[in-house]
Write a structure and sequence with these properties.
- This protein is an alpha+beta fold.
- It folds into two domains: 288 residues, no CATH class; 63 residues.
- It contains five helices and 22 strands.
- The strands form six sheets. A five-stranded antiparallel sheet has the order 13-10-11-18-21, with no helix packed on it. Strands 2-1-3-6 form a four-stranded antiparallel sheet, with no helix packed on it. A four-stranded mixed sheet has the order 7-8-19-20, with no helix packed on it.
- The longest helix is centred in the C-terminal third of the chain and has 44 residues.
- It is elongated, with a radius of gyration of 32 Å.
- Keywords: Membrane, Signal, Transmembrane, Transmembrane helix.
Length: 386
């Protein structure tokens, strides 16, 4: 109880702090910071993410410690030049970074923790309804999604089986703090929405994304409100015109689905991918099944033929031939700026010194003679008279 209350208090303080920061505009627009090592003395590398960053510097061990997004939505590619599969990283207002580059996924009921994320290049996110966001996703396959009201896949949970155009409104619990998604990153993509109709702001998640065990780190696109306040869940692109136009209009309403609410302590067999260490825990589970009536959309449709976009051709639009020249020009311009600043400072100091000497001389010329000076003059006159 005390642990839960302390967590709530800490997060409330963090939310207040982030709110104050956002009011003062502390985050830097369109810039991200890459920390190569876990060293407080090292200087992070600053990048602009309005275009592709084709290569990313790494430590001697080939790792990256932390990426600070500053509220920007970024695609993290495993290959260089922003091609191939990517992780769509969309942080919220609370945590604006990802560190240790560790991802989570499920292999059936076995949790694979701390898989190493390969960072080959970074680019800006595609727009919400850009088909590249869900390239390769299988809408004809049913995806199992389980939401938990506590971190690390514990607490009260609600499970959904989603396919095609289905949208499920979530129960009005306070927060959803972790999510389990079946399938693979290549074939599965799920969206959490900030309204109950699967519209509005959303965040896209796939198996193998970081912080699925703690979705306090994720935020809704644009508004950046926290993903823990999700009110509905669907497959990716559910309300996008390109997806909606691909479905037929023949739908049939059924009320056959049930929702299972389970309160559980950590119930998973965990595999940690750090050197051959396997940890197996036997859970104790208390299950209460509440019969609930959930409206499920069973849609008879023509099979959605989503072409797998050629990521190479599309993404290379972000890599310009003049990238290196532009970066060189930016470096040259920054050098001139610093040089002009130094010259301006020297000019001001010189002007101040000259003015000080000038006014001091005028002060001495107009100052009346002191008593000692007048005495010396009188003494000299008397001596001449004698």
């Amino acid at each position: 109880m005390h642990t839960t209350m302390s967590k709530v208090l800490v997060k409330a303080v963090l939310l207040l702090t982030i709110g104050i920061q956002s009011n003062f505009g502390i985050s830097i627009a369109q810039n991200i910071e890459i920390h190569v090592t876990n060293d407080n003395t090292s200087i992070p590398i600053l990048y602009n993410v309005d275009r592709c960053i084709p290569t990313i510097p790494k430590s001697e061990a080939g790792d990256i410690h932390k990426i600070e997004t500053n509220g920007n939505c970024i695609n993290i590619y495993s290959q260089e030049n922003c091609v191939g599969q990517f992780i769509r990283l969309q942080t919220g207002r609370l945590f604006k970074y990802v560190r240790n580059m560790a991802a989570h996924r499920w292999d059936d009921n076995i949790l694979i923790r701390h898989e190493n994320m390969i960072v080959g290049s970074i680019g800006p996110c595609f727009e919400k309804c850009d088909p590249q966001n869900w390239a390769g996703m299988r809408r004809d396959l049913s995806t199992s999604v389980t939401l938990y009201d506590e971190e690390d896949y514990t607490g009260t949970k609600y499970s959904y089986s989603i396919s095609e155009k289905q949208c499920f409104a979530t129960p009005s619990l306070t927060t959803w703090e972790s999510i389990k998604i079946s399938g693979t990153a290549a074939t599965t993509c799920v969206e959490l929405h900030d309204d109950s109709t699967c519209g509005g702001n959303s965040v896209q998640l796939r198996p193998g994304y970081p912080h699925l065990h703690d979705i306090w780190w994720w935020g809704f696109y644009r508004g950046q409100d926290l993903a823990i306040y999700a009110k509905s869940v669907s497959l990716c692109g559910n309300t996008c015109p390109a997806v909606m136009d691909s479905f037929s209009t023949t739908t049939k309403m059924t009320t056959t689905s049930t929702t299972t609410m389970t309160t559980t302590t950590p119930t998973t067999t965990t595999i940690t991918t750090t050197p051959t260490t396997t940890i197996t825990t036997k859970p104790t589970t208390t299950t209460t099944t509440k019969p609930t009536t959930t409206m499920a959309m069973t849609t008879k449709t023509n099979k959605l033929e989503e072409p797998v976009i050629n990521m190479t051709n599309q993404s290379r639009l972000h890599v310009h031939e003049k990238l290196s020249d532009k970066q060189a020009d930016e470096k040259t311009s920054s050098v001139w700026v610093w040089l002009l600043v130094v010259l301006a400072i020297l000019f001001v100091l010189g002007l101040a010194g000259f003015g000080g000497v000038y006014f001091f001389q005028r002060y001495r010329n107009v100052r009346p003679l002191s008593y000692q000076g007048r005495y010396n003059v009188m003494y000299k006159l008397q001596s001449e008279n004698l």
